[in-house]
Write a structure and sequence with these properties.
It is a single chain. The chain has about 400 residues and is an alpha+beta fold. It has two domains: about 220 residues, Gcn5-related N-acetyltransferase (GNAT) (Aminopeptidase), CATH 3.40.630.30; about 140 residues, Gcn5-related N-acetyltransferase (GNAT) (Aminopeptidase, 3-Layer(aba) Sandwich), CATH 3.40.630. About 35% of the residues lie in helices and about 25% in strands. It is built from eleven helices and 16 strands. The strands form two sheets. It has an eleven-stranded mixed β-sheet. A five-stranded antiparallel β-sheet has the order 1-2-4-5-8, covered by helices on one side. α10 links the parallel β14 and β15. It is globular, with a radius of gyration of 22 Å. The chain starts with a strand and ends in a 9-residue tail after the last helix.
Length: about 400
């Protein structure tokens, strides 16, 4: 698609590209937030390294139902000014914002729900910017063009809908101004309140919860288990071989088929090793479990976990307590522990509302979805308020 649009600085062009490789890393890295800049926010999931690894490893490609349709804005000279990662999706797997019921209803009414336009980080339920611009000063005007571009793709291709998932508050407000519907969900994040050590964090917990946490941590190491953190040049193929076995086992049990290929892990190890924190548990000289985390400028993102041996509380230790240890040691503001999981509440992770935005051009279907979302948002708000009263912190914390 190539559509001319008049922008505030003159003629601009909206188009779609199938692969980040069509743009190149130097071009993508001009966008705000997609590479590390001193003092600037950085989210590893919108980096060229992460997104291109998904494509190059054939984890997110047409054969797996992810057809690249990244929306870009160019100036009159053809230079990239803004971009939004996006895909034509042939299913709703790997998104973590569940719209299967919408698809069923749409098709029962005689429509064709797939393909749809999906702006998301494949297989990654973490909030990350989707409306990316070269300069912060023109963010609103260029982001408006990206929003209009997604709607133009839907109209041009006759799609059922466009979905922009796990967005921030500013993006949500802009998209709402363009007629997108707002949907809320819930995750659990740990917040660093300036703790110097894990013991400082434990000190703000209720006595009973603190004792339970200490018991879980002791028992996790009871069978001569040790845990090592690997990052940067310390990562090697032996570690990825072990972790991929764990990932395959967990993925097969959760989804029937793991989403990520083995080569994906090698590629991220080559391209963004400093953004990775791989935590592996070892017993009797063998790796028996692991948790994969990614590091941004202010957060640690827990993504995948798996094991070959089951030990009491080892899952909690690797995925939650070790992540807290790392965040404290590296002065990160928070740990985002992925989708779902109310059991995280007892481990000091608090409920946080996440947001996704949805464009539905069919008026009758839009009304039905809009009505549904009103009740769903109210329920999410109610559940979040309820859980906030049941955190493990001492009363008043």
């Amino acid at each position: 698609m190539s559509e001319p649009n008049e922008g505030p600085a003159g003629s601009r062009t909206l188009e779609t590209v199938e692969s980040l490789g069509d743009l190149g890393q130097d071009v993508w890295d001009r966008l705000q937030g997609v590479r590390k800049r001193k003092g600037a926010p950085y989210n590893p999931f919108i980096s060229y390294a992460f997104l291109s690894s998904l494509e190059d490893s054939k984890s997110a490609e047409p054969e797996t139902g992810w057809i690249g349709s990244h929306i870009v804005v160019r100036d009159a000279a053809g230079n990239l000014e803004a971009a939004m990662p996006a895909y034509l999706k042939m299913h709703s797997y790997g998104e973590y914002v569940f719209d299967h019921a919408w698809a069923d209803a749409y098709e029962r009414a005689g429509g064709r729900y797939y393909p749809k336009l999906q702006s998301s980080i494949p297989f990654t339920p973490a909030s990350a910017p989707k409306l990316l611009t070269v300069g912060a000063g023109t963010w609103a005007s260029l982001s408006s063009l990206l929003a209009q571009g997604s709607q133009a793709v839907v109209e041009k291709l006759g799609l059922s809908s466009a979905h922009i998932t796990f967005v921030g508050e500013e993006e949500a407000r802009l998209l709402e101004d363009h007629g997108f519907l707002t949907r809320h969900d819930q995750q659990f994040h740990w917040r660093n309140d300036g703790y110097g050590t894990f013991s400082d964090f434990e000190a703000v917990l209720a006595s009973r919860k603190r004792k339970q946490m200490r018991k879980e941590r002791r028992e996790a190491f009871a069978n001569d288990i040790s845990i090592v953190w690997f990052s940067g040049s310390d990562l090697c193929e032996e570690h990825w071989d072990a972790f991929f076995r764990f990932y395959q086992d967990t993925g097969a049990r959760k989804w029937g088929q793991p989403y990520l290929t083995r080569s994906f892990f090698s590629l991220i190890g080559e391209r963004m090793a400093d953004d990775i924190v791989l935590m592996l548990a070892k017993r009797d000289g063998r790796y028996i479990a692991g948790a994969l985390n990614f590091k941004g400028s202010d957060a640690l993102y827990g993504r995948h976990w798996g094991c070959s041996e089951h030990h009491p509380f080892l899952h909690f230790e690797l995925c939650y307590y070790q992540a807290i240890d790392y965040a404290i040691a590296n002065k990160l503001d928070r740990v985002e522990a992925g989708a779902q999981g109310a059991h995280k509440l007892a481990r000091g992770y608090v409920p946080v509302i996440t947001t996704s935005m949805h464009h539905i051009p069919n008026e009758s279907f839009r009304r039905a979805v809009s009505d549904y979302l009103v009740g769903e948002r109210e329920q999410v708000m109610f559940d979040t308020a309820y859980l906030e009263q049941r955190t493990p912190f001492r009363k008043g914390e």
